[in-house]
Amino acid sequence: MYTAFASVYDRLTADVDYPAWADFYEAMMNRYAIGHGKVCECACGTGNLTILLAKKGYQMTGVDISTDMLFEASQKARKDGAMIPFVKQDMRSLHLHRQMDAVLCTNDGVNYLPAEEDISAFFRMAYQALRLGGCLFFDLSTPHKLEHTLGDHFWGQADQDIAYLWQNHFSKNKQAVDLDLTIFVKQKDHLYLRIEEHQRQYAYPSELLVNLLAGEGFSEIALYGDRTFQKPDAREKRWHIAARKPRHSISPNPSSPPMETSS
Fold first, then answer.
1. Residue 182 is part of a domain; what is its CATH number?
2. DSSP string for the chain
3. Buried b / exposed e along 91-128 (16+ C-beta atoms within 10 A)
4. Number of neighbouring beta carbons within 10 Å of residue 230
C-alpha cells in the first residue's frame, strides 16, 4: 500500500480542511490539559496534520508504515522549516526513545487495522509510549459511514493533469469496505501514468473500542462526534475518541469504565 500513490495523495485530498482538523486536536489536547509538549502522530501519512501541529508549538514526531509517505512528509516539513523526525514503524509495534504527552492516530488510521488483536496491540504500545497522565487521541470513520457513504459507491473526477476513478464495495460479512482507485497523472510527454491503489477499511463498533482501551489500562475514555465535544448521533460519519493513561501506575483493568459521551 502507498507507493506511487504517495506522490499524488495530497492532490487527491486537497479539499480536506487540515487547519480545522489541527485546531480541533489542539482544543482536544487543551481540554485534557496536555500542554504544548511531546506528541507522536501515528499513521501520519504525508504529514499534513503533523506539520500544522508543529507550527502550533507541539514537539511532533511522525510515524508511518510507508517509506513513500514519510518521504513526502519530510520534504514538506523541510520546505516549511519544521524540524520533525519522521519514523518508519508499524503502529502496532510502536517504540519511541522518549515518552510522549500525547499519541495521535488521525484520519482513519485505526480503520486500517484488520482485527481486534491489531487494535489491542496499537492501544498497548500507545499506552507504553505515554507518560503517566498522557493521552491517546484518535479518530476513525464510523460503521455507518463505511456502509452507507463509502460502500458500493463510485466517484470520478478529472482535472487538467490528473483524473481518478474510485470504486468501493462494502461487505456486511467482513464488516469492511474495499476501496479501489485508478489514477491517471499527465506526464511531460503527454502520456499518462496509471496508478492503481487498493485499500480496505474495517468497521468497528464504539463499544468494542472502549472495551479494548479499558483492557489496556486507559481511563477517562470519551467518545465524541465529528470535530465536536458532543455525543455522536446514529448517523455520525466520524468519531473522535480520547483516553488517558492514569496519573498513577496501575495494572490494566479488563472491565470497561463508564464512558463519557459528551461535554
1. 2.20.25.110
2. --STHHHHHHHHTTTS-HHHHHHHHHHHHHHTT--S-EEEEES-TT-HHHHHHHHTT-EEEEEES-HHHHHHHHHHHHHTT----EEE--GGG---SS-EEEEEE-TTGGGG--SHHHHHHHHHHHHHHEEEEEEEEEEEE-HHIIIIIITT-EEEEE-SSEEEEEEEEEETTTTEEEEEEEEEEE-TTS-EEEEEEEEEEE---HHHHHHHHHHTT-EEEEEE-TTSSS---TT-SEEEEEEE--SS--PPPSSPPPPB---
3. bbebebeeebbbbbbbbbbbbbbeeeebbbbbbbbbbe
4. 12
* Nearest alpha-carbon partner for 22 in 63, 58, 53, 60: 53
Q: Is residue 259 part of a domain?
A: no
| The three three-digit cell numbers of residue 158, written as one number | 478529472
Nearest Cα neighbor of 108 from 60, 79, 145 is: 145
- Kindly state whether residues 53 and 14 are assigned to the same domain: yes
**How many structural domains does the chain have?**
2
How confident is the prediction along the chain (263 residues), in pLDDT tens digits per residue? 445 788 888 778 878 899 999 999 999 999 999 999 999 999 999 999 999 999 999 999 999 999 999 999 999 999 999 999 999 999 999 999 999 999 999 999 999 999 999 999 999 999 999 999 999 999 999 999 999 999 999 989 888 888 989 999 999 999 999 999 999 998 888 888 899 999 999 999 999 999 999 999 999 999 999 999 999 999 999 999 999 999 986 555 444 444 444 43
Sign of the Cα pseudo-torsion (130, 237, 49, 152, in order): positive
CA 159 – CA 206 distance, rounded (Å): 38
